[in-house]
Specification:
heterodimer, A: 4 helices, B: about 0% strand, elongated
Chain lengths: ~120, ~150
């Protein structure tokens, strides 16, 4: 994991989550802006997947458990896809709120991934 | 299920995923460290999965299942939360640390999950009490009619 990239990722997910929550509560169904924000969050997660596959090979190892790390990362990768399809099928404001919940959940999960990689220590 | 109920289902789904992922990892990786906590972790995961399905599925049977699982959740987070906060040694080492390796979704009242496990069952019960399936609503209306006549 790269520390600055992880920090950027947490804040982008947080911003996307808050944006979708606000747009949803105002009463808009998912649109290009909110779905685009969630797509951006997903792209960053895919980039994180590539980074964390390469990192241990070049000597950047997690301090905590790699298995636990991947459970978080794979769960996080599923969420925007599930939320996004939901948003395309169910055209109501609540789908936008769901996208917001997805964004916030990913922010927390990415933060946890950072803890496992940088702070946790060998169990 | 419509409206804000969808959001409830989404949050339940995410929590089910989180609890399942965590318990599977704990049981595979270091089950012997805190077996009681990890069995509870797996049990809570199962409860969240069933509750998520019960909230989506229509009919009075699923409505009862939803009430049952959500009640178990509330009891679970209160009991496990109390034990892990005041007597963490009972469940094994490190269980009292909400962000620790041996934590469960219900440890210290769900502090490791932003207390969502504590708030969610209450929101679920509020939602259920306001959205009775038609057949249950008729039965209770009939019951109150009978009571009024008596």
């Amino acid at each position: 994991m790269i520390e600055w990239f992880t920090t950027v990722q947490v804040f982008v997910a947080l911003a996307a989550g808050i944006l979708c929550l606000v747009v949803g509560i105002v009463g808009r169904p998912p649109n290009d802006l909110t779905l685009g924000a969630i797509v951006l969050v997903e792209l960053l997660l895919v980039a994180q997947l590539v980074v964390t596959i390469v990192a241990p090979i070049v000597g950047n190892n997690p301090t905590g458990s790699l298995g636990e790390f991947y459970i978080y990362l794979i769960s996080a990768l599923i969420l925007p896809v599930a939320g996004g399809f939901w948003g395309l099928i169910e055209r109501t404001r609540w789908s936008t709120v769901v996208l917001g919940v997805v964004g916030l959940a990913i922010a927390v999960m990415t933060y946890r991934m950072g803890q496992i990689w940088f702070i946790q220590g060998t169990p | 299920m419509t409206g804000v109920g969808r959001v409830l289902v989404a949050v339940y789904g995410i929590l089910a995923l989180a609890a399942t992922g965590r318990s599977v990892f704990q049981i595979i990786d270091h089950f012997s460290l805190a077996p009681v906590a990890f069995v509870l972790s797996a049990f809570s995961a199962l409860i969240y999965i069933v509750a998520t399905i019960a909230l989506i599925a229509p009919g009075r049977v699923w409505y009862r299942v939803a009430w049952t699982t959500i009640s178990i959740e509330l009891a679970g987070v209160l009991v496990v939360g109390t034990i892990t906060t005041f007597a963490p040694g009972l469940f094994g080492a490190g269980v009292g640390d909400p962000f620790g390796d041996n934590s469960t979704v219900w440890s210290t009242y769900g502090a490791g999950y932003l207390f969502i496990p504590l708030v969610l069952p209450v929101l679920g019960m509020l939602w259920l009490s306001r959205h009775k399936p038609a057949s249950v609503a008729e039965t209770s209306a009939a019951a109150s009619d009978t009571a009024a006549k008596a």
